[in-house]
């Protein structure tokens, strides 16, 4: 299913988790190798997307603690609107996604190709949280990049998991 993804095995493991409801989530049910790549976002009724839990890989990558940060306040480079639209769509419709996309980290001075998976966790008939998993496939130095060298994007929509 994840043809073209470098981290296809991890994506399979992430989407293989039998979690549907927010109350069912327990990090101990997640395979250990995924822990550092996990993040959990609270979806506010006002559209806020606040990071509740964040693995060490992400905090180290972004060089700051991310817990409590609203994703809407993070600039994701040229594709910022597209990145936020995925979270907003997952929070609004409950659609699960896996994407591979290029992201600019201006403060770090490089561009990276990321593979990200997200799935909503439900509470009382609405997506209340988004559980995500984030991997970096490749980093490119921002200086010296030829335009178009990192144009890659794959989007896969996944079916809703069945209740346990």
Number of strands: 6
CATH class designation: Alpha Beta
Q: What is the gyration radius calculated from CA atoms?
A: 15 Å
Write the CATH homologous superfamily: PAS domain
Q: Strand portion, in percent?
A: 25-35%
Mean pLDDT metric: 80
Query: Could you say how many structural domains there are in total?
Result: 1
The percent of residues in helical segments reads 10-25%
CATH domain topology: Beta-Lactamase
| Shape category | globular
H/E element order: HEEHHEEEE
**Class inferred from helices and paired strands:** alpha+beta
Which CATH architecture is right?
A: 2-Layer Sandwich
End-to-end Cα distance: 22 Å
Count of DSSP H/I helices: 3
Largest sheet: 6 strands, antiparallel
Uncertain parts: none
Biggest β-sheet: strands ordered side by side in the sheet? 2-1-5-4-3-6
Q: How would you describe what is shown here?
A:
It is a single chain. The protein is an alpha+beta fold. It has one domain: Beta-Lactamase. The chain has helices at residues 8-15, 56-62, 80-93, and strands spanning 38-43, 49-54, 96-105, 110-123, 126-141, 154-158. Strands 2-1-5-4-3-6 form a 6-stranded antiparallel sheet, with helices on both faces. The longest helix is centred in the middle third of the chain and has 14 residues, at 80-93. The model has no long low-confidence stretch (mean pLDDT 80).
């Amino acid at each position: 299913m994840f043809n073209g993804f470098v981290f296809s095995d991890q994506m399979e493991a992430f989407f293989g988790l039998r979690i549907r409801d927010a109350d069912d989530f327990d990090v101990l049910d997640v395979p250990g190798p995924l822990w550092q790549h996990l993040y959990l976002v609270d979806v506010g009724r006002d559209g806020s997307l606040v990071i509740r839990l964040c693995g060490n890989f992400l905090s180290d990558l972004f060089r700051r603690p991310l817990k409590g940060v609203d994703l809407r306040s993070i600039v994701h480079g040229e594709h910022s609107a597209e990145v936020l639209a995925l979270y907003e769509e997952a929070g609004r419709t409950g659609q699960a996604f896996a994407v591979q996309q290029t992201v600019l980290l201006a403060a770090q001075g490089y561009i990276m190709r990321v593979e990200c998976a997200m799935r909503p966790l439900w509470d009382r008939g609405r997506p209340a949280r988004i559980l995500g998993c984030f991997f970096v496939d490749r980093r490119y130095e921002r200086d010296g990049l030829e335009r178009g060298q990192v144009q890659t994007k794959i989007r896969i929509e996944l079916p809703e998991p069945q209740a346990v």
